[in-house]
Amino acid sequence: MAEKKKIKILRIINRFNVGGPIHNAVMLSAFMPDEYETLLVGGHPEENEASSIHIAEKYGIKPMLLDDMKRRPNYTNDKKALKQLKEIILAFRPDIVHTHASKAGALGRKAAFDCKVPIIVHTFHGHVFHSYFSWWKTKLYQTIEKRLAKKTTGIIAISEIQKNELSLKYKICKAEKIEIIQLGFDLRPFNENKTENREKTRASLGLKDTEIAVAIIGRLAPIKNHDMFLQCISSVHEKTTKKVVYFIVGGGEDFTSIDEKVRVLKAKGMDIRMTSWINDINIFNAGMDVICLTSKNEGTPVSIIEAQATGIPFVATNVGGIKDIVSENNTGYLVELTDYEVFIEKLLLLIENENKRQEMSQKGWPFVEEKFQYTTLIAKTDSYYKFLLNQKNICA
What we know:
Elements: E1 7-15, H1 20-31, E2 36-43, H2 53-58, E3 64-66, H3 75-92, E4 96-100, H4 102-114, E5 119-124, H5 135-150, E6 154-157, H6 160-169, E7 178-180, H7 188-191, H8 194-205, E8 212-217, H9 226-239, E9 244-249, H10 255-267, E10 271-276, H11 281-286, E11 290-293, H12 302-310, E12 314-317, E13 332-335, H13 340-352, H14 354-368, H15 374-391
Parallel strand pairs: 1-2, 1-4, 2-3, 4-5, 5-6, 6-7, 8-9, 8-11, 9-10, 11-12, 12-13
């Protein structure tokens, strides 16, 4: 009997930097059922970003890297990347092209549409419709996304909030075209060997048992709003008698600006350490006591999911789809973006109150264990692919 033809998926991601989209793309490339064959392609990380190729390689995925897939719009680079994507499509002959995030979504969907790929799927890992650009540029991107949506078979939102924003607030497409599939991760390492990992991390960082470790993890970029973090911890420093050590984990375009502000605070007696990117974030997390997030906009912030998986309480701004990924007031606190005083109050509470930290710590893993495991992501994506394949009368 002849072997059944596999469904081919070309998965396109913006670039192989550290963040939620790469985890999602790798899980979907590595663990989809055997009836699928996946080719993962994307651009290189930017100069000030850490590479995430090691994440793909960890799960046996060898992605194809595109030199001209750049984050910022550039006519020459974009034209070359589009041409290369079309060549890949014609050679690979995918049944599904699935793009992740904005640049990959724009170039990948145009290439797929021009090459008459039967099914085109796009995942919004966030959106750029507020807090990123000027109003006119935001309006331009909104118009582009509306046009791209017409060329797309199905759109995936990663939260209920995001679906409502895309369909009702920004009117990118009708709600019926949008499927909600939350991100999925391999979260087991965050819940394993926590005592051992905590001792290992704190020893390597020279942290005493009496010291409270607070971290913010993510790109050093304007959208992540590190200024708010620095202002809030400066106020906390004046109010607490605890010895607190603050960690800024990540790299990016705002490094120099943030570093200058950190130097000023350190001169006032604060212990703030900039660590750049950390690969074994599960081991690092175990050594922390509180995780912070101060973003102006988010899709599904990985650092908060990983914090809950580790059992580390958080204080985060209530933006984007974050409300859909937390158990508010149980695993951590959400604060409105402009409410610095409440952010300071909640952070101070977690720093001062070990019992509250322990109470919240026990609730993190049960909340994320099934909801954000990659197995749930795989099952829902498989089901959605089959739905779209059946609509096109393509056998799965």
